[in-house]
Predict the 3D structure of the following.
Amino acid sequence: MSVLSQLNSPFIYLVCAVIVCFVALVCVVFAVRAYRAGKAIGMDVTKMKRTIVASATFAVLPSVGILLGVIALSGSLGTPWPWLRLSVIGALHYETQVAEAAAEAIGLGGLSASQMTAQAFTTIALLMSVCIMWGMVFSLFTCKRYTNRLNSPSPEKKKGGKGSSLAGFGDKAMTAMFIGLVSAYLGSYIGTLVSGEGLFRFGGSFLPLAVALVGAAAMGIFLWIRRRWNAAWVDSFSIAGSMLIAMTAAIFLGRLA
């Protein structure tokens, strides 16, 4: 039996399904308790129901991106593990990047079903789990203090100035982190092109760069629509839509490679 067959075995499906169902049950319990609490404090039931329907509707399109991540990772890690990771606590940008980095670090040269071994999968799965759990751990000790700082005005605002809040710094720090990640990945492909490897052929490092440009252009169009017509609903599927467009472009451009 191959490693991929073992990763798709009924036992692995059962283990992952139990965890996913438990988390889903917790979400339902908290949703019901929140609804009852809203009624208890006198919130408009009609508005609450409208909010629930709107939230469920707008959650469908962003989840397409998550489904794409499961499909992308299932070819080398099996279906149950990516399904578990991206259903519980994982993020699409995190899971794919860490899995790829871990595969390269152990000498696989990337995520590949033909090269995957039990030891390699164990290392990749362990790294994916350990690296992301610290947000939960640190939240136990710092979340309350952080929330209090978010709710309290900065010293400049207390004096009537235009001081920036901690929330603003968090947004800038997150943006800077993603810019650094994107720059690191694109920089490796640009470096390969500059060095002359694959410079005169469409495939190789040029194809990921072309796909990245298509995805960036698609996101730019979504942002333009958002600002031009003040269409806040675009935010709900701009990432998933950009990914779908970029992946479609990768298919067509790959045929030219």
Summary: The mean pLDDT is 82.
